[in-house]
Amino acid sequence: MIVSTVFSQGKVTGTITDGTGSLPGANVQIKGSSTATSTDFDGKFTLNATTSTGEIVISYLGYENKTVKFTVNGGTANVGTITLESNSNELSEIVVKSTVVDIAKDRKTPVAVSTIKAAEIKEKLGTQEFPEILRNTPSVYVTKSGGGFGDARINIRGFNQNNIAVMINGMPVNDMENGSVYWSNWAGLSDVTSAMQVQRGLGSSKLATPSVGGTINIVTKSSDMKEGGSFSSGFGNGRNFKIQGSYNTGKLENGLSASVLLSQTMGDGYIPGTQFEGSNYFIALGYGTKDDKHNFQLTVTGAPQWHNQRSTASTIATYQKYGSLAEPNIRYNPDTGYLNGEQYNIRKNYYHKPVASFNWDYNINETTKLSSVLYASMGRGAGASATGGIGGNVYNSSVFLLPNGMVDYDKIQAWNNGTGSVFFNGANRTRTQIGGVYQNSSSTGRTGAGNTADPYVYNTTSGISQTSSINSHDWFGALINLNKKLSSTLTLDFGIDARTYTGYHFTVVNDLLGGGEFFDNNIASLKPAGRHLTSTYATNVQWNVFDKRDYDKISFNSTGKVRWYGAFTQLEYSKDNLTAFVQGAISQQGFKREDNFVYLPTDPLASTDYENILGGNAKAGANYNINEKHNVYVNAGYYSRQPFFNSVYPNNRSTVNPNLTNEKITGFEAGYGFRSRFFNATVNLYNTTWNDRYLKGNALPAGNGIAANTTYTEFTGLNEVHSGIEFEGSSNITDKFKVNAMFSYGIWEYKGNASVNAYYQADNTPVAGYTAATVYMDKVKVGDAAQMTASVGASYEVLTRVTVDANYNFNDKLYAGLSPTTFTSADNKGALQLPSYGLFDAGFSYKMLTGKNKDKSVNFRLNVNNLFDKIYIAESRTNIFADDNVSSNAAAGTYASNNRLYRGLADGNQVFFGFGRTWNFTLRYDF
């Protein structure tokens, strides 16, 4: 007699937490099978098992994977509450497999770090700009700048985003010519980000990146996410509307996987005249071999967009003029108006920057792993603005403003086509034709013969045109990293970093605004006759980035080429409670400039040789875990950073700067961490010294044998020191009530005085007879970012899956952006401190479970930012104190001095106010 037992099916249940709260969306999979599910909002899961015993593997972004055994009795197996070890700075192997991505590890990597997970980005970002999700991170200051879609900027520890390394899946994305990051080009990142990590200070990146202030690591979704998808739509004030859909196949039995996301967003903008439209696409394809030796990932993502802008910072008096003394019109936009009955803005940005990457991870054996990524980016687009003027008046001068402050573009068009007059220089002026054509040009001066009876009536007085400064590029790169475990305690990394970049820079005419032609006299080979152009090019997004269009170029036309070759290595020691590392990188950057506008084709300077400059970094650090709750760390590093492209070739000329020197950055840091079931906290101390900072100044004033606009100035000996303390903490008061807080206090100052030298534009030779001037910068505060920030936030689950949350963010010790050119006296007043401000945000979430097994959900989210409609100044472009004020309105001048909002500020300061109250609502279906 044969007895057999057949097991049909059972259920495995449990709850996943991180020790302080539930983990919704954690992946739970039966080991050795494709059976998997994810936890619900409360961290609970139910899994169908086809065997009576086995193991489940739990993984969640930012936590260590965990394997738990189960045994089914009576049809169920409850594994209870499973706590994942906090590893909030390491992405689980299911999400990130490549050692190319430099993700800091909690209680292991000795750097100051904060991690923002996808769930928080999805819930709280709403219609804010992508960098704004970092607003409650220590030592981070984010503003919307002019307020256009994607025009936000970010500072970390007082350093702007040109000095912050931004990495996407290990790929550097800072512009290779100037280090800039244009967030409008990455507007779709919020949709595809799995986690974003901010490493303040020199960071853990092995590359020789420009991370003076910090590194932002962004890890996108991968192809092998669990099967499922979502649809969502959202809307907010300013007629903001967004729709999005995504689907993931999960890893199929044949090893293939795919993930696709598409979205579209549009709106009028909070600021009048800042309409926008953007798309986003993300495609990831993957393949993993059954033996787990090879994993391949192909990812393509892009976010073509256009948006009108507010680029001009108005004075406080102007905001008051078009509002009131008590309530300035913070939305005033001096760049927008109406043309032919429709709203028109001459300032516009349009860009498409797709990025493709191919990752190959090869587990050679148990101790050796090779990770490689090949990537390419082709950016196409421009920023549109105004060119020309009328009798010295630009498009938003007072002669073209309507009583409500909007630009009268109809008046500009009438002047350009000869049907209207403009009042300037004391009389109504009219325009005459040149050769039967109303001619526009890029000059605001007058180049033709004038009327001797009235020297202001010149038939070549420029009209006003819309032109675009094209900044397109082709960028290709490769990162290869070999990770070798030398012993049970030592691991060696070695890799190479190669990049090549070509930037295309020129200007085209978009709209003659009624003019008949555009006269350009900038091509050396066509002087003095110049060119008469009638061709115009629409400000449309170029979807086909492989199409290199042939434009009629004006004003300037140059190509910048950058070659980067680097090597890096890291040796890490890890045993018991101690982890230590030493790291080094070296890179050679080569810079080449081509210019057939300024130079004749036969001129050697029309195409230069590569100017090669060496740079690199060295870093070391150690972390010691005192016990399971306490850890301490220290790190130190030194960077020798090559100058940017415009420092090598200053003033848009092809003569190499004779005074090239690398910038030197030295950083020291120490920190303490505390982890418990109910409370987590970190404290960091830092000191960063930035020496030999390059800064270019303005031209010398005309006179004493110097012609106007033929010189430029440079600063030498410009040094900064940034020191401070940071705190970050979170706690679960109860299972339903969570609190988080942060505090940072910085002392960011210039160190020592600097010198200003003057050079001729044509050949970079010193200006004859000029004596270097001293600028008195010692102890002057570094501007453009709040040196003291604090926030406290809380969330409370009032009912099952119904949560309300709120956050208060405070900013103080915020100084105006300043130019050292104004500090020519030893008794200067220093940096202008702007008034402090605090903002209160609130949110509401509800998740409704649906589907037969409650494995689907409908999610509702409401965000209200700046709930109390606080009026505040987010940044100032000028540094004018109240007692220096010369106001066109005496009452405004008094008000600017005495009112709390403007105390100490002259009403002549050019500022951007922050946004008032904004809101957005999102509805999402997950399946």
TrEMBL record:
PROSITE patterns: TONB_DEPENDENT_REC_2, TONB_DEPENDENT_REC_3. It comes from Flavobacterium ginsengiterrae. Residues 410-867 form the TonB-dependent receptor-like beta-barrel domain. It comes from the Bacteria. It is a multi-pass membrane protein. Pfam families: CarbopepD_reg_2, Plug, TonB_dep_Rec_b-barrel. Residues 106-214 form the TonB-dependent receptor plug domain. It is found in: Cell outer membrane. Its main location: membrane. Keywords: Cell outer membrane, Membrane, Receptor, Signal, TonB box, Transmembrane, Transmembrane beta strand, Transport. This is TonB-dependent receptor. Belongs to the TonB-dependent receptor family. PANTHER family: TONB-DEPENDENT OUTER MEMBRANE RECEPTOR, TONB-DEPENDENT RECEPTOR HI_1217-RELATED. Gene3D superfamilies: Carboxypeptidase-like, regulatory domain, TonB-dependent receptor, beta-barrel domain, TonB-dependent receptor, plug domain. Transmembrane segments: none annotated.
